[in-house]
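Hello again,

I reread your note about wanting to compare the complex against the isolated chains. To keep things tidy I'm splitting this into two emails, and this first one only covers the full assembly. Below are the input lines as submitted, including protein chains and any nucleic acid or small-molecule components. They are followed by the predicted structure of everything together. The single-chain runs will come separately.
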Amino acid sequence: MPSTVVTADTTAQTIAAEKENAAVLAESITIDNLLGGGDRVIQIQDIFTPAVTNGVPVPVETTVSRFTYTALAGDQITLGQDEIKGVKCLGAMKVISDVIDASCIITVGYKHDE
Amino acid sequence: MLELQLKPQFSVVIPPKTLQEGYLVTFSSDWPSTQEAIREKTFRIDAVNQVPYDLSYTIPTGDYRDVDFANGGGTFKENIYPENQTSLFEVLVGFKPGCFLSHWYIPAGKSVHNLEYAQMYPDLTSAKKKYLGARTAKDSPYEDPRIKLYLVKDLAPLIMRLFVLPGVDYEKIVTGLIINKCLMREIVAPTDDQKLKAKVIRYYDYLRW
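Full-complex prediction:
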């Protein structure tokens, strides 16, 4: 299972790029906010451009929030498959925070549904 | 203890899912007159080449996309058809699991899965009839595709309509194709034995008697 480590940022940070013939499944997420400057709201976002359809001839890039967690200052949490089962990104999997904080470290394990 | 494994009394041989080199095919008389080059003729498969190809579409709930297998420059065309008269493309179609239905039309707008009573055709605006004739991922899984198409040059457009059911915001529909490219050589005067052994490929109209 591959994983990616990012720090809390208000710009979405890429965990896994979009793979055209597969979705990205979250396997685990660890939010290390032990040294963070405050509570942080962390989201997993799914970013993709839908296909041209009969209903939408000119689709635009779309962002869907797939998971949200508030990590308390001084806390560290790990959520495994049982807790985040069903968190699935159709496009790119990204992580975004409500505040920029280099001391809040987020690790996401993921796989493609092949 | 000494044990002697008995010789099996029978074995099961599973035939290949796709046409193989040396196989015979016959195109039945119900092919349209525009297909005179193959209609009511028998061919030997001289070569095969399996080409995998994944198509994927992310579609919002309640919306659909018409996937046209024919060749051309339109947005919905996927250019899967042969360009040579001596080619037959046998295409296996399988789906990864998801919250969607597929409906099939040839040519566009003409479903191959109507019933006989009036109005009994697939209708995506109807809560009930959107399921009429629909094929799902369970019917033809990606790993074990069971939908098979036969494509020849200049065949009328074959349309696969992919519709996302309510219950999800978007669905990514991954369609796995195995395109078995077959090079055909005509047998001008097939024997009775060859006619008997040949796989009969009928036109899609026969599904709509």
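For quick reference: The radius of gyration of chain A is 15 Å.

B.
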